[in-house]
């Protein structure tokens, strides 16, 4: 019956007058002559690394393997595709259609083989990527009967085909395969990746339903698959359906490498532990590498009367964890600022302790901070600068000397602290820091502070840097922002030496900015092109 269906489908192919022979007028195929397994592995790895330009090469190699027909290479290629990331299949679904057009003679032969039932799983898979919908439909009809794992990804893609007849044949073929955990996992990773396509929501919904209502074995397999999207969907769907126990939640919160999964499972674990009065089970979350997870554990234990974790978390590097710990201690009747004062006067306080005093202390505590502006750790120095700013004790003379700090973490905090005093800073020194012999983070700090000045200084600095390899992106972006949002409401015009300097810099920047943008700048600045060079 299927054979008759395929023949009927092939009779309707618009591009072929006779499937029993290859038309002589067709041009030669543009495919690799003798593909090797190494070429296939390299091309597949490149596509998995998001090098999309290699997808055409991979599709051409696959067609060439099928045309070559070497049994060993065909089998190895099939295994390579089964191990491939869903990204590879998604790219093949796009590029293989145009690669088929580069192989017209092999396309005609492939259609002949399909009509006669002379095909391999690889050949059927590639036929399922054919640009002709009738060929894809016939390939799907054959794939539906095929008991080979390689058929599963191809059927998954065609279940989301834009042609109704193709997807209507592929979907029933996938239904019974979803009951088998190993096959379902092969479908799941690709189906969820297809969920954003117009016709892909059906299959993604089926996978979510299987996670919500299917066998426990299938859900267990999904919670441990390497594909991050599948694990996340399985965890979140199972959480919503109440199918995860506390042990599973805690394991995911501690060990899963997907941040949304860790956070949601930690939140659910805390609620479950609180309801079951098993608070000690969440203590391992206190050492989690995820700040939100640590915060959830601190909050639960403090709510149940154990403030020791909150005290320990006061010096946490994460502001979120510190805020939860500070709130927990206040509710317990303790002043976190007193704890921070003791921590900051220690021999070498943690950066989080310095930051915490800035968050909870008063102006009277500012005297405890300056000695840590030379903290041996960059985060410690940055925390000291930030604490002084928050306590209203930032000294521009002291902090401006830190603009040459070897760490960008520090100079970013120094820049924020110095902005209110930008007009009082030594402009000559800032310009010296902006020169090309300084590290990028120091130049960026000087650039930000110079920008706090008047509009003409800002534009002069931008025009000086539009051709600088290290700073040109910042400068060009700022010029574009000024033209878009501020130029029309800048009613004054540059005068005297400032106007002359802008005129010269606009002339010098024309190659970097282009004549149109330079012309627009001259218009808004009320400047004329220089009459002589």
Oligomer: single chain
- In terms of DSSP E residues, the strand content is under 5%
Please compute the radius of gyration using only Cα atoms: 33 Å
CA-based shape: flat
Low-confidence stretches: 14-20
**Biggest sheet, in brief?**
none
Mean of pLDDT: 89
Number of strands: 0
How far the N terminus sits from the C terminus, by CA atoms, comes to: 84 Å
Q: What structural class do helix, strand and pairing data support?
A: mainly alpha
Q: Figure out the total of helices.
A: 31
**Fraction of residues in H or I helices:** 55-70%
Task: Give an account of the 3D structure.
The chain is an all-alpha fold. The protein contains 31 helices and no strands. The longest helix is centred in the middle third of the chain and has 18 residues, at 259-276. The termini are far apart.
């Amino acid at each position: 019956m299927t054979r008759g269906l395929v023949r009927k489908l092939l009779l309707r192919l618009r591009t072929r007058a006779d499937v029993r022979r290859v038309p002589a007028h067709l041009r030669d195929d543009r495919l690799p002559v003798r593909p090797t397994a190494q070429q296939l592995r390299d091309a597949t790895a490149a596509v998995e690394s998001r090098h999309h330009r290699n997808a055409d090469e991979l599709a051409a190699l696959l067609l060439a393997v099928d045309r070559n027909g070497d049994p060993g290479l065909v089998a190895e290629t099939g295994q390579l595709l089964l191990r491939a990331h869903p990204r590879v299949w998604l790219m093949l679904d796009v590029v293989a259609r145009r690669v088929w057009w580069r192989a017209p003679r092999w396309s005609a032969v492939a259609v002949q083989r399909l009509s006669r039932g002379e095909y391999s799983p690889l050949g059927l898979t590639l036929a399922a990527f054919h640009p002709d919908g009738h060929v894809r439909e016939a390939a799907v009809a054959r794939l539906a009967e095929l008991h080979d794992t390689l058929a599963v990804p191809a059927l998954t893609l065609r279940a989301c085909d834009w042609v109704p007849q193709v997807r209507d044949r592929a979907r029933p073929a996938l239904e019974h395969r979803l009951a088998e955990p190993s096959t379902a996992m092969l479908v799941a990773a690709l189906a969820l990746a297809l969920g954003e396509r117009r016709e892909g929501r059906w299959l993604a919904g089926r996978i979510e339903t299987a996670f919500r209502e299917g066998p426990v074995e299938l859900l267990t397999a999904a919670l441990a698959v390497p594909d991050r999207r599948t694990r996340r969907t399985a965890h979140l769907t199972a959480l919503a359906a109440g199918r995860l126990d506390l042990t599973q939640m805690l394991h995911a919160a501690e060990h899963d490498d997907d941040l949304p999964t860790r956070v949601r499972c930690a939140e659910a674990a805390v609620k479950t532990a609180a309801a079951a009065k098993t608070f000690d089970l969440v203590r391992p979350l206190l050492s989690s590498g995820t700040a939100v997870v640590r915060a959830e554990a601190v909050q639960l234990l403090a709510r149940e009367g154990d403030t020791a974790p909150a005290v320990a978390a006061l010096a946490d590097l994460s502001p979120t964890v510190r805020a939860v710990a500070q709130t927990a201690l206040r509710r317990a009747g303790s002043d976190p600022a007193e704890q921070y004062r003791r921590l900051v006067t220690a021999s070498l306080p943690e950066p989080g302790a310095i930051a915490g005093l800035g968050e909870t202390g008063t102006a009277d505590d500012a005297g405890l901070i300056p000695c840590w502006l030379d903290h041996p750790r960059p985060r410690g120095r940055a925390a000291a600068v930030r604490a002084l700013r928050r306590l209203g004790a930032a000294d521009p003379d002291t902090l401006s000397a830190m603009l040459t700090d070897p760490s960008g973490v520090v100079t970013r905090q120094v820049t924020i602290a110095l902005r209110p005093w930008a007009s009082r800073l030594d402009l000559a020194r800032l310009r010296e820091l902006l020169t090309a012999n300084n590290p990028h983070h120091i130049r960026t700090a000087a650039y930000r502070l110079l920008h706090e000045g008047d509009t003409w200084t800002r534009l002069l600095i931008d025009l000086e840097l539009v051709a600088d390899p290290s700073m040109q992106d910042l400068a060009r972006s700022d010029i574009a922002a000024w033209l878009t949002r501020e130029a029309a409401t800048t009613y004054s015009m540059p005068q005297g030496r400032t106007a002359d300097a802008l005129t010269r810099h606009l002339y010098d920047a024309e190659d970097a900015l282009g004549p149109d943008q330079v012309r627009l700048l001259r218009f808004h600045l009320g400047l004329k092109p220089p009459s002589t060079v």
